[in-house]
Amino acid sequence: MYREDRRKELNLPEIKDLASIEAYLDGIKKNKQGVIPINGNALNEISTLFSAVNGYQTIGGDNISVVIAKSYNSPRDIVAYPFTPEYEARFYDADNGDF
After folding, report:
1. Crossing angle of helices 42-54/18-31, nearest 10°?
2. What's the DSSP call for residue 47?
3. In 3-state terms, what secondary structure has residue 34?
4. Which residues contact 50 (CB under 8 A, 6 or more apart)?
5. How confident is the model at residue 7, as a pLDDT?
6. In angstroms, rounded to a whole number, what is the distance separating the alpha carbons of residues 66 and 83?
7. Which pTM does this prediction carry?
């Protein structure tokens, strides 16, 4: 959840993907002193967005579970998404050789 009025006020991009949510959070942090850009568990929100963008579905536990199914239609197709190419492409820091 985010504030659309602040997004428009600061002329930040429409939130459609991980890059745009990062731009929003960064824009709020830089331009709204004393305002926390996200209320809640940031890891949970980013993980939920990552799963939604890449089509992964949590099958048990919480939304930040690393064991998920590729789809509701194939619940036995279990994936540990931190080891997927999509996850590595998004979070791997090639300069430091680490996530």
Report:
1. 150
2. H
3. coil
4. 18, 56, 81, 86, 87, 90
5. 92
6. 9
7. 0.47
